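Q: Got one fold?
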Amino acid sequence: MIRVTPIKASPGLSRLAGGPVWLKCEHRQETGAFKLRGASNAAARLSDVAGVTTASTGNHGRALAHAARQLGMPAVICVSRLVPGNKLAAIEALGAEARVIGASQDEAFEEARRLKRDEGFALIPPFDHPDVIAGQGTLGLEIIEQIPDAATIAVPLSGGGLLAGVALAVKSLRPDIRIVGISMERGAAMAASLEAGRPVQVEELETLADSLGGGIGMQNRLTFAMVRDLMDDLILLTEDEIAAGIRHLALEDGETVEGAAAVGAAAVIAGKLRAEQGPLVLILSGQNIDPARHAAIVRGER
């Protein structure tokens, strides 16, 4: 079910970064994003439940819908109205129900919790769950196998499941490796929480990196502390910088990715991320962007 995704050199980004840059093409995962790793691992460990549910900005919901179909169980994916229509359609195409609730992921989570409480569904959150984090960690192990001398891994940062899993896996083998989290300036809940020293609520805003939206949970049990303790640096990007990353990956590297997946390239282009200390690996986390929107960004018409 889970693919070992390819890794490829990026000559253009390498020139800009002052050292070798590699693209970990996780957007070529079966559901178009890394989320399948964690969702599949968590779902496979369930038994005697009425179905599965979650709240998602899109990619985790699609991954859980896929895993549920493979396991023959119902799935209800709760989303906010900020989730793009193409991601809703992809969830429903897998046989799951995409239930639109409110204007934020936190509101959508209330419905997922009700389904757990009242209808016997198993709630698999998108990041703050040990089995989800462990599943995402397999991506870090692949990177170390493919680029053993990697000096830095740049990880798109939202709720922290990907960064926590990757960082824990790679630092257990290579404690010296540098983990850089990258997010958007508009509504980055983990960044705001780290600055405050505790989980805080942040207004969800429209952004090209929509997969990085949503809160981290006021009762966050795992990922806040793991990101705080394992991340070496944090970079925030403007919308124009994210658009430049999407455009560069399309025109120079031939890769169609969503905004969340372009943040590593965007940071390099903006001069905020370098590769002078050794190979830099950028995780291209997903490709689930509306084709018309992608085309407009590539044309410079955002």
In short: The two ends are 35 Å apart (CA to CA). Strands lie at 7-9, 21-24, 51-55, 75-79, 97-100, 121-123, 152-156, 178-184, 233-237, 280-283.
